[in-house]
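[Discussion] Sanity-checking designs against the backbone

I'm trying to build intuition for which residues belong where. Below is a C-alpha cell string of 124 positions. I'd appreciate it if someone posts a full sequence so I can compare it with mine line by line.
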C-alpha cells in the first residue's frame, strides 16, 4: 500500500500560444501596449515577449493584471510601493501615473488581487 501525498498547489500559469510551456503568474511583471500588440515583461528576461493581441484583450483574458494606464497593466504581486508619482516595482523601473489613474489605483489593485486569490483558492 502506497501513500500519496498531495503536492502544494502552484499559482495558475499563463498559457500563451507558441511559448511551449505555461508561464507562472508570479513571473509576469507587466503588460504594455504597442499598437495592436502587447509586450509582456517577464521577470528575469531582458527582452519582453510580443503578443499579437491588444492590451484590452489581454486584460480581459488575464484579469489578474491591474490596468494602471491606458497603455499599461501590472501584476499586483510586483508592486513594492505606491508613491505620489506612481508605482515602484521590484527589480524594475518605476511606472509614472497621472493623477486620474492614481485615484483609481487602489481599487484596481484590490480587484486584481482578489482575482488571484480566487484562482489560488479554486485550484484543486
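Best answer:
Here's mine. Compare freely.
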Amino acid at each position: 500500500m502506497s501513500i500519496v501525498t498531495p503536492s502544494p498547489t502552484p499559482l495558475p500559469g499563463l498559457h500563451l500560444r507558441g511559448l511551449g510551456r505555461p508561464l507562472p503568474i508570479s513571473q509576469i511583471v507587466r503588460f504594455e501596449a504597442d499598437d495592436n500588440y502587447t509586450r509582456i515583461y517577464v521577470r528575469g528576461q531582458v527582452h519582453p515577449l510580443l503578443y499579437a493581441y491588444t492590451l484590452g484583450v489581454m486584460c480581459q483574458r488575464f484579469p489578474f493584471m491591474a490596468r494602471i494606464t491606458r497603455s499599461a497593466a501590472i501584476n499586483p504581486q510586483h508592486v513594492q510601493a505606491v508613491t505620489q508619482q506612481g508605482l515602484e516595482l521590484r527589480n524594475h523601473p518605476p511606472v509614472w501615473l497621472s493623477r486620474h489613474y492614481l485615484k483609481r489605483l487602489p481599487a484596481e489593485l484590490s480587484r486584481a488581487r482578489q482575482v488571484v486569490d480566487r484562482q489560488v483558492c479554486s485550484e484543486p
